[in-house]
Amino acid sequence: MKEVYMQTSVASLAPPQILQKDLLQRFDIAGPRYTSYPTADRFVEAFDSRTLESWLHTRGLGARPAPLSVYVHVPFCESLCHYCACNKIITRDHAKGMLYLDDLAREIEQYQRVFATDPATGVTSRPPRIAVSHLHLGGGSPTFLSDEELGHLMALLETLFDMDAGGERSIEVDPRTVNRKRMHALAQLGFNRVSFGVQDFDANVQEAVHRVQSTQQIFDLVQIARELNFRSINVDLIYGLPRQTPATFRTTLDTLRQLRPDRIALYAYAHLPTRFKPQRRIDATELPDAESKVSMVQQAIAALLADGYVYIGMDHFALPDDSLAIAKRQGRLHRNFQGYTDQIDGDLIGLGVSAISKIGPTYSQNAKTLTEYRDCLNQNRLPVVKGIELSADDIMRRSLIMALMCQGRVSIEAMEIAHLIDFDKAFANELVELRQYEELGLVERSHDWLQVTEQGWYFVRAIAMVFDRYLQTSQEHGRFSRIL
Question: Which of 175, 266, 317, 367 could form a disulfide with 309 if both were Cys (CB 3.0 to 4.6 A apart)?
Answer without folding.
Answer: 317
